[in-house]
Structures are given as structure tokens and as C-alpha cells.
Amino acid sequence: MRRDWYRRLGEAGWSTPTWPPQYGGRGLGRDEGGAVVEELRRRGVDRPEEDFVGVWLAGPTILQWGTDEQRETYLRPLACGEHRWCQLFSEPGAGSDLASLATSAVRIDGDRWLVNGQKIWSSFANTADFGLLMARTDPSLPKHAGITYFLLDMRTPGVEVRPLRQMTGDAEFNEVFLTDVVVPDSARLGPLNAGWQVGISTLMQERNSLTGPPVVGPGVADQLIAEAVDSGAWDNADVRDRLQRMLVDERALQSASFRASVTPERNPGAIDSIRKLVSADLHERTGRIRVDLAPHLTLGWPSDAEMPSGTRSFLEMKKFCIAGGTSEIQRNIIAERVLGLPREPDPDRDKPFNRRSV
User: Which GO molecular function entries does the Swiss-Prot or TrEMBL record give (predicted)?
Assistant: First the structure.
């Protein structure tokens, strides 16, 4: 029932309102599209979590970098929820330093690529139809320059997905093994060896989406304040101080998100990093204060049929400090692009990838 409703929403162009009509959208501007997303979320009709990568990451990246044929092929089914997507970026040896990825793509027969490697922490890869893949196509170039971006059909022979069990009991993340996977050149997104630039646009979309769209009205802090008042915890001065600070930061984040949605920024990457950093901090503080306000709600266990919200909030409170780029990486970006501090040393940055020191 829910999936059918989102299909109908997508067919009408309301699930991706800022996209062009020919690709499944309504052609609305950023401010109008933001208002639509805000109203849908406020009414509790946000898209399923497993559609996150497709709508928020794959779609905008294909719109920006794809050919007309690729847009025609992928976007409308994506908007209607017919296809699910995953992100194949991080590797066991390339997490925060993503440009060190080692998955290789070697050209064969002129118009095909042979891909070998391993990806990890890929959300929803076990149910995905397609994946956003970054692979190294020229190891003789510096690590940022020899990467190409592909749209991988996850049903291709040689793709193996293994779920990773989390402490919540869920298996949202996966490791993906790519063994002699043949990818047509028509699935290449963007120019050859320009995958880093394409990937950066995807990462900017991810950091922007993880802060959440602007929402006017009550948020998590308001809910926690109401719970504290009902339980009598509001009488504690320390609790009041923590919740009031959280409310102020939440409102500031909402205002920044709204401004970013309607006003192009001169330095969007740094702005998104600031919002991502504040959002991750709010998630962690939410988990901690839920424990302090109602310790009994953290007594659930992952095997329980319905895990109490306090348990899940506590177990997941560090999630957003890592997902979409760690908080430490966001601080580096802010330091370099906002404060003008020197770039972090990287002796291998300009060396050919196959001659790097590590």
C-alpha cells in the first residue's frame, strides 16, 4: 500500500518536484520545491528510507552529469520508486580518504569495462537495483585524477552483496564484492577520469540531505521538552539548560537549511559541512538526553519485536557523526574553506596512484 502510494506520488511529479517534467518532476524552483518537501514531511509522508540514495543522491547527480539517454533511462523510474539505488564509494582501505580507492575498471573490447574490487558500508545494497560506483581507470594519474564514475546494474554477474549486522539488529549496511564485473561504457557517468568531480557532487548532495529539509514548527527538541515537562524532569535546572540549548541549535539549523534551499551560496560545500556538523551533534545529544530523561526506555534489545525509541536513539546516536563524511572531515573542510587554514598534509596527493608511498 505504502509503496503504491509513493509510485502514484512520483507519477504525478510530487516526489521530485524540482526535476524537469520530462524526467518525473514538476519543474518547480528551489523555494517552491522546498515548500513541497517540507509540507510532505510535516504530514508524515516522507519517502521510505530505502529510497534515500536514489532520490537525494543518484537523481541529482544524473541530472547534472548524465546524457539525455541516461536521464531518460533512469530518472522517471527512480522518481516513482520503481528502482532502488545504493552508493558504492567507501572501501576497506579508502574511507575518509576516498580518493585512495583501489577498485579497478579496465577497458576491454573498446566499449566495456572489467571491474574488480570491494566496497563497504553501502546502505541498502542488498535490495538495490542499481549502484553509484567510483572505480580507478588510470592508476598512472594522481589519485584524484584517475577515477571514473559508473551506474552499475546490481544484477550483473560478479556482484556479491553481504549484509553487515549492526548493534541495533538491523542490516542497513553491506559489503559488496565485484569480481570480473562487465560494465558497458554507456553506463559511464561523466567524462573519463573525471569521476572525482562527479563523486564530489554526489557527496555534497548527501551532506545536504543528511541535515534534513527545512521544517517550520515543532521538532525533536520540542518533543523532548514536552516529555520533560510531563515527567517532571523540567524542574531540574540542568535539564532545562540542555534542552533550551538544543532547541536554539535546532532552530538555527532549520533557518540555515531554509536559507540554503532558497539562496545559492558562494561556498556551498563549506556551508553543507557546517550544517552536517551541527546536525550530527544534535543527533548525538538527542540520544544522550533520551537516556537521561527516561532510562527505562533504553532497556530494549535488538531482538525485541519493537525496539523502544530510546534504545534505538541511543544506539544510533553516533551514526550521523560518521555517515556522509565524518565530523572530523567536516571540521577540516570548514577550517580550509571558511577559516583559510592550511590544507592537511598529503604527500601522495600529486603522485601517480601506482607510485604512492602507502
Answer: flavin adenine dinucleotide binding; oxidoreductase activity, acting on the CH-CH group of donors
DSSP 233-283: GGGSHHHHHHHHHHHHHHHHHHHHHHHHHHS--SSHHHHHHHHHHHHHHHH
Q: Kindly report the pTM of this predicted structure.
A: 0.83
What is the Cα–Cα distance from 251 to 248, expressed in whole angstroms?
5
d(CA 190, CA 195): 7
167: DSSP letter: T
Domain count for the chain: 3
CATH at 186: 2.40.110.10
Range of the domain at 288: 214-339
- Told to judge if 91 belongs to the known catalytic residues of this protein, a careful annotator would answer no
Q: Which of 50-64, 105-119, 262-276 has the highest mean pLDDT?
A: 105-119
C-alpha cell, 98 = 576516498
Give the C-alpha separation, 356 to 143, whole Å: 9
